[in-house]
Automatic annotation (TrEMBL):
Listed InterPro entries: Ferrochelatase (IPR001015), Ferrochelatase_C (IPR033644), Ferrochelatase_N (IPR033659)
Catalytic activity: Fe-coproporphyrin III + 2 H(+) = coproporphyrin III + Fe(2+)
Top EC category: lyase
Organism whose genome encodes this protein: Arthrobacter cryoconiti
Similarity section: Belongs to the ferrochelatase family.
Signal sequence range: none
Protein known as: Coproporphyrin III ferrochelatase
Function, in words: Involved in coproporphyrin-dependent heme b biosynthesis. Catalyzes the insertion of ferrous iron into coproporphyrin III to form Fe-coproporphyrin III.
Metabolic or biological pathway: Porphyrin-containing compound metabolism; protoheme biosynthesis
EC number of the protein: 4.99.1.9
Keyword Lyase found: yes
Location (main, coarse): cytoplasm
């Protein structure tokens, strides 16, 4: 596979882009309308699926996590004498990306480098961000006036993986201690690497383009990237420790196939096999947003407790110093000033490319303006001849 690497450029700001989340009970339904826009889902149905936000006061922790990450990035950039301000924009809640781009242009910025809070390759983790920027540039009239590039997907960058190595080892130790306290020191433990389930059609399109199909484990870059990361983590933590990849947070019509197994089903099967403890590693997530706090810390924990299994959930990278430093390294890969030639990766799948091939992680819902794609007419990073 060719791996397009963009030429270093001069940037005048960083855009931290994320999903967004409600910050009060009155925000929940408007937020869910944003997330599901275009699908015609009535408010009554949205209210039925809002319970995990309602149970947390209508507040998703993701915005607070992003504020903390923004501050940590600013501190790391300052410590390296890199004079790039950090802007923050969300896809589904305030501060909205179009408004942030407009404010950036009015402030005099002309070229932004985007870092997203999604590490893996699939439509919702990569292409949808690139589409949202493309649509925002078009809708605000900034296409051709403001350029927005994007760092590579960083699923196997050491800055993302090494915090999971530390966290998994510590979590294993806590579960072993729980089993000792329960009088089962020889009880078997299983590590579950958890990520967001996606439709299988999107999974099979992940990482593949219209002109350069690839072969991946289980037919999906999204799945292969998680499997490779989990293997790299366990090689460093305990190569003899059993582990598996599981999924969570499925939504959508029941007849549409999504990636499986569900984490709760997997826990039940492990209990039937005599496993005494589980370590849950939220491998698909950058921070402890609602789907971590509800689906793992609430539902998966309750399933384990009902089945009598010891349980511990490893932390996400969040603002871990290695993660923050790694994000700044990714920024430096793309800049003329403070440029880093080294592009580290902890699996054989990486380092991932800077500029996507046409149709990568295809959108089955209709074509939209997109950035960071060879041949894109909106926000194109560089022509193929410059690669």
């Amino acid at each position: 596979m060719s791996a397009p690497i963009a030429a270093p450029a001069h940037y005048d700001a960083i855009l931290l882009a994320s999903f967004g989340g409600p910050e009060g009970q009155e925000d929940v339904i408007p937020f869910l309308r944003n997330v599901t826009r275009g699908r015609g889902i009535p408010d009554e149905r949205l209210e039925e699926v809002s319970h995990h936000y309602r149970a947390n006061g209508g507040i998703s922790p993701i915005n607070a996590q992003n504020r903390a990450l923004k501050s940590a990035l600013e501190a790391e950039l300052a410590s390296r004498n890199i004079g790039l301000p950090v802007l923050w924009g969300n896809r589904n809640w305030d501060p909205y990306i179009p408004e942030v781009l407009t404010s950036a242009y009015e402030a005099g910025h002309r070229r932004l480098l985007m870092v997203t809070t999604s590490a893996y390759s699939c439509y919702s983790s990569c292409r949808q961000y690139r589409e949202d920027i493309g649509m925002a540039l078009t809708e605000t009239g900034l296409d051709g006036k403001l350029a927005v590039d994007k760092v590579r997907q960083y699923f196997d960058h050491p800055g993302f993986v090494e915090p999971f190595i530390e966290g998994t080892a510590a979590s294993l130790a806590r579960v072993r201690a729980q089993l000792v306290d329960a009088g089962s020191p020889e009880g078997q433990i299983h590590v579950l690497f958890a990520t967001h389930s996606i439709p299988t059609r999107d999974a099979h399109a992940a990482g593949n383009s219209v002109n350069e199909p690839r072969e991946f484990a289980e037919g999906s870059a999204y799945v292969a990237q998680h499997l490779a990361n989990a293997a790299a983590i366990m090689d460093r933590v305990d190569s003899e420790q059993p582990w598996s990849l599981v999924y969570q947070s499925r939504s959508g019509a029941p007849h549409v196939p999504w990636l499986e197994p569900d984490i709760n089903d997997a826990i039940a099967e492990l209990a039937d096999k005599g496993i005494k403890g589980v370590v849950v590693v939220p491998l698909g997530f950058v921070s402890d947003h609602m789907e971590v706090l509800w689906d793992l810390d609430t539902e998966a924990k309750e399933t384990s407790e009902k089945l009598g299994l010891a349980f511990d959930r490893a932390p996400t990278p969040s603002t871990h110093h290695k993660f923050v430093s790694g994000l700044v390294d990714l920024i430096c890969e793309r800049t003329v000033e403070n440029h880093l030639d080294d592009r580290p990766a902890m699996t054989d799948l990486g380092p991932w490319f800077d500029v996507c091939n046409p149709g990568c992680c295809a959108n089955f819902r209709g074509e939209k303006p997109v950035i960071s794609e060879i041949g894109s007419s909106v926000g194109r990073e560089c022509a193929p001849a410059e690669l």
